[in-house]
Design goal:
This protein is mainly β and 583 residues long. It folds into three domains: 150 residues, Immunoglobulin-like (Sandwich); 195 residues, Sandwich (Immunoglobulin-like), CATH 2.60.40.420; 202 residues, Immunoglobulin-like (Sandwich). It is 11% helix and 36% strand. The strands form seven sheets. A six-stranded mixed beta sheet has the order 10-9-12-17-14-15, with no helix packed on it. The protein has a six-stranded mixed beta sheet with strand order 21-20-25-30-27-28. Strands 11-19-18-13-16 form a five-stranded mixed beta sheet. Strand 1 and strand 2 form a beta hairpin. The longest helix is centred in the N-terminal third of the chain and has 26 residues. The chain binds 2-acetamido-2-deoxy-beta-D-glucopyranose (NAG) (9 copies) and copper (II) ion (CU). The site of one 2-acetamido-2-deoxy-beta-D-glucopyranose has 4 residues, from loops. Its cofactor is Cu cation. GO terms for molecular function: copper ion binding; hydroquinone:oxygen oxidoreductase activity; oxidoreductase activity.
Length: 583
């Protein structure tokens, strides 16, 4: 009896334990069959020939652009990055929320020390409620000029797009090519203090297209069959240039941006800042022929030099393809779209203000932190005794850029996240100002005495779950310009934008708190402002910066430090064992 009871108890206990374990196991698994995708990224120099000349280009797995990653919402990515190049490198998964996995975000000296030549690091993260197009790119120095690729996130298995299933899907990565080593270009600029050389070409999926020398035969062809509707996933992966994008004679229906769906709207032209993505449907409803897909600069800074060339691919109707009338089809010139003027800000405004969330959005309304950040350029006076060859910005200065007059300096002995997590003092300070130190007419004629920013490694601290409203105010110091401001680790609602100085009394009335778009990069209008809101629900240290790499090089950045909340689900995971060290 005794033993029967004890056995029965044991049996019962183990059954109970087993069920409990099963429950724990099952509840830690998503409802649908999420997958784990393993990839190896070897960063290496590879000969790449463009514009008649071959360069030893830094690539991933010898590909330019790099491999396209395709996943479903809810899947996990495990990417082992091996650095066989001669430069430090990190990889950033642009727009991925990285909930509690800030260690996998990637910006050098912010969430990790770089992967040094010969080293490796494995990025692990899960896609959490994001669908559409994102991308990945190097986030150290200017390596992202050539180290980038698409990240396509389809709905969970069994789920569908909120629009008719397209016949075909084509990622179109817009890039920027220097007929030089991009690292030499940024090093030269850093040495001289001057603006870096402009690029020599833009590219679509790595190819400049047939308006450039030595490029015609490799022009990207995008096939389409008469009557069908296809999805184009357009990414601006250019380094320093906002771009207009058009397809000759075809309307584009926007269905998503930055891996969030939007209320569909139709346009003939897109504008994307570096970092931004736009998913569009295109229907083959024109006479069968070949049509150019084209991108060229939106250059908002008056008087600043820019690459004014045009990259093209070809939208080719199948019935116009070469199989039937071989020689004819090749010689027929594609129809070329009329692009907006380089400074057509009116078109940009009409486009960016058309975005809406598909339905009523959970925009935070009770605001804990009401922030106002100025964003713009500056000029540093040269220290006494400096050589003139190191002071080649206008009138013997050096270019700078800042947010709230702080020109951001990266640490070099610890990443900000490591310093935060391990409590290492002296790496950063937590006094990033909530407001500019000085109020002035931001978009007017700014007194020369205000042009030189202070330097610092300052973060702004947020408690877990706090809500933020942030006014991003462009300045006209040196020149006004549209800045694509990107926040790591978060999507935010863009609730308003406008020109001139933001005026709370007047402009609060314009806030869209009903269905504003959810983005990870906001194009702050030239000589104007944008207002964004988000909830600090992801602990870590998160860089916010201008996605024109020339501006981040000059210091147009800051970071939010978001504290842990209560319990495991509100706490940053421990650092991976292979996290690179700085020294
Ligand atoms: C930048 O452009 C100048 C002028 O064309 C040229 O002399 C220089 O070599 C270029 N720098 C790099 C790093 O390509
Ligand atoms: C392209 O080739 C033409 C003819 O060979 C030449 O005149 C022109 O300078 C080249 N353009 C560039 C940008 O190299
Ligand atoms: C681009 O700039 C060059 C040099 O400034 C100029 O000669 C050319 O006409 C410009 N091209 C276009 C399309 O504006
Ligand atoms: C745009 O540039 C043209 C010259 O290319 C100039 O005439 C016009 O005033 C500019 N427009 C704006 C809004 O700056
Ligand atoms: C440079 O100096 C000249 C002459 O004093 C002045 O006209 C110009 O505005 C200055 N430029 C800048 C950017 O300070
Ligand atoms: C890290 O570098 C900063 C700036 O160079 C220095 O002030 C600090 O003491 C260093 N911290 C450690 C722990 O070495
Ligand atoms: C800008 O202000 C300065 C004085 O702060 C003045 O000398 C200059 O003429 C003004 N420029 C313009 C274009 O108004
Ligand atoms: C930024 O700070 C520097 C150094 O403290 C100061 O000279 C400058 O006037 C400030 N500029 C602005 C716009 O606050
Ligand atoms: C590479 O990163 C290490 C820290 O991990 C740093 O000490 C070194 O200066 C970096 N090298 C370059 C060329 O930036
Ligand atoms: Cu910028």
């Amino acid at each position: 009896m005794e033993s029967f009871r004890s056995n029965y108890n044991k049996l019962f206990t183990s059954f109970f334990l087993f069920s409990a374990l099963l429950l724990v196991f099952m509840s830690s698994m998503p409802i649908t069959n999420a997958k784990v995708h393993h990839h190896d990224f070897v960063v290496q120099a590879t000969p790449v020939k463009r514009l008649c000349k071959t360069h030893n280009t830094i690539t991933v797995n010898g590909m330019y652009p790099g491999p396209t990653l395709e996943v479903n919402n809810g899947d996990t990515l495990v990417v082992k990055v091996v650095n066989r190049a001669r430069y430090n490198v990190t990889i950033h998964w642009h727009g991925v929320r990285q909930m509690r996995t800030a260690w996998a975000d990637g910006p050098a000296f912010v969430t990790q020390c770089p992967i040094r030549p010969g080293g490796s690091y494995t990025y692990r993260f899960t896609i959490d409620r994001q669908e559409g197009t994102l991308w990945w790119h190097a986030h150290s120095s200017w390596l992202r000029a050539t180290v980038y690729g698409a990240l396509i996130i389809r709905p969970r298995q069994g789920d569908e797009y909120p629009f008719p299933k397209p016949h075909r899907e084509t990622p179109l990565l817009l890039g920027e090519w220097w007929d030089a080593n991009p690292i030499d270009v940024v090093r030269q600029a850093t040495r001289t203090g001057a603006a870096p050389n402009i690029s020599d070409a833009y590219t679509i999926n790595g190819q400049p297209g047939d308006l450039y020398n030595c490029s015609a035969k490799d022009t990207i062809v995008v096939p389409i069959a008469a009557g069908e509707t296809n999805l184009l996933r357009v990414v601006n992966s250019a380094l320093n240039q906002e771009l207009f994008f058009k397809v000759a004679n075809h309307k584009l229906t926007i269905v998503g941006a930055d891996a969030s769906y939007v209320k569909p709207f139709t346009t003939s032209v897109l504008m994307l800042g570096p970092g931004q993505t736009t998913d569009v449907l295109i229907t083959a409803n024109q006479p069968p022929a070949r049509y150019y897909i084209a991108a060229r600069a939106y250059a908002s800074a008056q008087g600043a030099p820019f690459d004014n060339t045009t990259t093209t691919a070809i939208l080719q109707y199948k019935s116009a393809a070469c199989s039937t009338t071989t020689s004819k089809c090749v010689s027929s010139k594609p129809v070329i779209p009329k692009m907006p003027a380089f400074n057509d800000t009116a078109t940009v405004t009409a486009f960016t203000t058309s975005f809406r969330s598909p339905r009523k959005a959970p925009v935070p309304t009770k605001i804990d932190h009401n922030l106002f950040f100025t964003v713009g350029l500056g000029l540093n006076n040269c220290p006494r005794g400096a050589r003139s060859r190191n002071c080649q910005a206008p009138n013997g200065t050096r270019f700078a850029a800042s947010m709230n007059n702080v020109s951001f300096v990266l640490p070099s002995n610890f990443s900000l996240l490591q310093a935060h997590q391990q409590g290492v003092p002296g790496v950063f300070t937590t006094d990033f100002p909530a407001n500019p130190p000085l109020r002035f007419d931001y978009t007017g004629n700014v007194s020369r005495s205000l042009w030189q920013p202070a330097q610092g490694t300052k973060v702004y601290r947020l408690k877990y779950g706090e809500t933020v409203q942030l006014v991003l105010q462009g300045t006209s110091i040196f020149t006004a310009e549209n800045h694509p401001i990107h926040l790591h680790g978060y999507d935010f609602y863009i609730i308003a934008e406008g020109f001139g100085n933001f005026n709370a009394k007047r402009d609060t009335a314009k806030f869209n708190l009903v269905d504003p778009p959810l983005r990870n990069t906001a194009s702050v209008p030239v000589g104007g402002w944008s207002v964004i809101r988000f909830v600090a629900d992801n602990p870590g240290v998160w860089l916010m910066h201008c996605h024109l790499d020339v501006h981040i090089t000059w210091g147009l950045a800051m970071a939010f430090l978001v504290e842990n909340g209560v319990g495991k689900l509100q706490t940053l995971e421990p650092p991976p064992a292979d996290l690179p060290k700085c020294n």
